[in-house]
Specification:
Blueprint: H1 21-28, E1 32-36, E2 39-42, H2 44-63, E3 67-68, E4 74-76, H3 78-81, H4 85-88, E5 95-97, E6 103-106, H5 111-121, E7 130-139, E8 154-164, H6 167-187, E9 192-197, E10 206-213, E11 219-224, E12 230-232, E13 253-256, H7 263-270, E14 278-285, E15 288-295, H8 302-309, E16 316-317, H9 320-327, E17 343-346, E18 355-361, E19 364-369, E20 379-381, E21 399-414, H10 416-421, E22 424-426, E23 432-434, E24 436-443, H11 444-454, E25 456-457, E26 460-461, E27 472-476, H12 482-497, E28 502-504, H13 511-520, E29 525-529, E30 537-542, E31 549-552, H14 553-567
Parallel strand pairs: 3-7, 15-17, 17-20, 27-28, 27-29
Antiparallel strand pairs: 1-2, 4-6, 5-6, 7-8, 8-24, 9-10, 10-21, 11-12, 11-21, 13-19, 14-15, 14-16, 18-19, 21-24, 22-23, 25-26, 29-30, 30-31
The structure holds ligand 9G3.
């Protein structure tokens, strides 16, 4: 492609709303343009990049024996009625009415549609197992779309669904998808970790997330280098840890703690350690209030709490007015002793003695608190968020933590949708059985952002060859030099003839601008035709490499072809 023709509107500056590197670079390199919050257009370079990513996903899904379909994105409400999900997703679901005032939505996910397709089209157990997939635009009205393609309101997902006769079949289908995902993310050039994950509203017997470690990732990952354990914060198992405390039974003592609302203020005031306190946080779960306790230096994990309480909506912190109503005290003095609502305590509380809690009285706390004597929780459960330095639940090693970008999520669904919609089969004995499902998502457009997040330097994007919009660029240093232009053109033609996705920078720009743009848009390798072209010598430089080397024209062309074909 001649760059004098290419629509590649590079930018020197980007809008302040682009906070993360990949978002900045995708705007600066002219890959995408924002239409509205969470809604983007793909310009030529962005679309070529997208298509290479999409094709790797497609190749590996096909290789794994999955069959590609394409479902509608504009869906009648009935599609989600049987599973009860028409209401469940609330404002996240884009809903609209047609000219006859009928309810429709823009599809956010397609469990129901794929299950209904199987009901309509498959009628014998002999036709199982099947794994069907699509690569399709999804719509979710995210409350806080951000980070460019990382969290959009219109985005591309590869969603696959497996249908098996029994659990053993599901295990096989799941493993096939797991292995296909490993191949996909490897080919995308992503450094990824697979973590145990919470299945949330999806239910089922378990799920795993494919995470790309990045400081801009929205998910927390806990992992152990000794045994390989890795889990999302929402799922990571916490080992309760005993901390030193005063020994022996002491009488419960109410102490005046003026204006000490926070643990820090309390520590300063009382001189005890944060782990000698227990926090009591009041949540509204569905429509009832509960008191949740964790050690003073820990945090409540609200997904674990939601799963423990089995509530439909996410538990929310009680409003200050409600806290005052329940505790008869200002916020910051809630405690378990005599609180009058159910108390759920993290397992670490069970290991504490003579600890400090709010006294449900403004400016007052209790010290020397003892379980059993002073209060008894409904139950003890793992409801805290794991932290660096905690013990690994599998091997006792040291837990490390990182942030991650979730690029894939695979679920063993079980019969949640096949039951809801009635996907059944008659087994060889004529007995009616329910089909066992799995579902498997990849954020295809999110992968674009993840690749750039991991593959960049101060000069711009460093595209892995496998997904590079253009694989090589030929740059004549001086357009006015007929000899340079002629040789550059010849090299460009030879690369194209070898099947290389090549650019020819024939723009009437200074060489420095051409080099900067080649770096910014991440072209994996370049050939520069300059002063020595009369001697048949050109410069060869790999984008990820340190320095340029002089080569004969033939060697440069051969090395570009070799480099690209070895790294595709
Ligand atoms: C909705 C809306 C938002 C949603 C969902 C449905 C997340 C929803 C979970 C999944 C699970 C799997 C198929 C491929 C693999 C992932 N946000 N999820 O179901 F209606 Cl508005 O999407 N879906």
């Amino acid at each position: 492609m001649r760059m004098s023709k290419l629509l590649m509107p590079t930018l020197r500056e980007v809008p302040a709303e682009a906070e993360i590197t990949s978002h900045k670079l995708m705007l600066r390199a002219g890959l995408i343009r924002k239409l509205a919050a969470g809604i983007y257009s793909y310009l030529p370079l962005g679309l070529k990049f997208y298509k290479k990513v999409e094709n790797i996903v497609r190749e590996e899904m096909d290789r794994a024996g999955a069959q590609e379909l394409l479902m509608a994105a504009l869906l009648p409400a009935e599609a989600y009625m049987a599973s009860g999900r028409w209401e469940v997703f609330g404002p996240n679901m884009f809903k609209l009415k047609d000219r006859n005032d009928r309810d429709f939505c823009l599809g956010p996910t397609h469990e129901e549609l794929f299950t209904q397709t199987m009901i309509n089209e498959v009628h014998s157990y002999k036709e199982y197992p099947k794994t069907l997939y699509q690569i399709q635009t999804k719509y979710r009205d995210e409350a806080r779309p951000r980070f460019g393609l990382m969290r959009g309101r219109e985005f591309v997902m590869k969603d696959a669904y497996s249908f098996d006769l029994d659990e053993a079949g599901l295990d096989k289908s799941y493993k096939i998808m797991y292995d296909a995902y490993c191949r996909i993310f490897t080919r995308l050039g992503l450094d990824f970790t697979i973590v145990d994950a919470d299945s949330g509203a999806m239910g089922g017997s378990g799920s795993q997330e494919f995470m790309v470690k990045s400081p801009v990732g929205e998910d927390g990952i806990a992992y152990c280098d000794s045994c390989g354990y890795a889990a999302n914060y929402e799922k990571a198992e916490c080992v309760p840890e005993r901390k030193p405390s005063e020994e022996g039974e002491k009488p419960l003592e109410k102490i005046h703690t003026p204006n000490a609302h926070t643990i820090e203020e309390l520590v300063a005031f009382m001189g005890a350690e944060p782990y000698n306190f227990a926090k009591t946080i009041i949540y509204k779960a569905d429509d009832k209030y509960v008191a949740v306790m964790v050690r003073g230096d820990r945090e409540v994990n609200e997904v674990k709490l939601k799963n423990l309480l089995g509530c439909t909506d996410d538990p929310e912190l009680a409003e200050p007015a409600a806290v005052r109503e329940i505790t008869h005290a200002e916020v910051g003095f809630a405690g378990p002793v005599g609180i009058g609502i159910p108390v759920y305590a993290d397992k670490e509380i069970e290991l504490m003695e003579n600890f400090i809690v709010g006294a449900n009285e403004t400016d007052m706390h209790y010290k020397n608190v003892r379980l059993g004597r002073d209060f008894t929780p409904e139950l003890f459960a793992d409801i805290r968020t794991i932290e660096t330095g905690d013990k690994c639940p599998h091997c006792g090693g040291e837990i490390k933590t990182a942030q991650g970008i979730e690029v894939g999520h695979i679920f063993k669904l079980g019969t949640k949708y096949s039951d809801a919609l009635g996907l059944k089969y008659l087994d060889e004995n004529g007995k009616s059985q329910t089909v066992i499902m799995g579902c498997y998502g990849i954020g295809v457009s999110r992968c674009l952002a993840a690749v750039i997040e991991q593959c960049n330097d101060e000069n711009g994007i460093i595209f892995p060859v496998s997904v590079a919009p253009y694989e090589a660029v030929v740059i004549p240093v001086n357009n006015k030099q007929e000899e340079q232009m002629h040789l550059a053109e010849e090299i460009y033609d030879r690369l194209k003839a070898e099947g290389i996705d090549a650019l020819f920078d024939d723009r009437a720009e200074r060489a420095g601008v051409k080099f900067k743009d080649a770096d910014l848009i991440g072209v994996p390798v370049r050939i520069v035709v300059g002063k020595k072209c009369g001697e048949g010598i050109v410069e060869y430089k790999e984008r990820a490499g340190e320095s340029a080397v002089e080569k004969t024209v033939n060697d440069a062309v051969a090395d570009v072809v070799k480099f690209i074909k070895e790294n595709r």
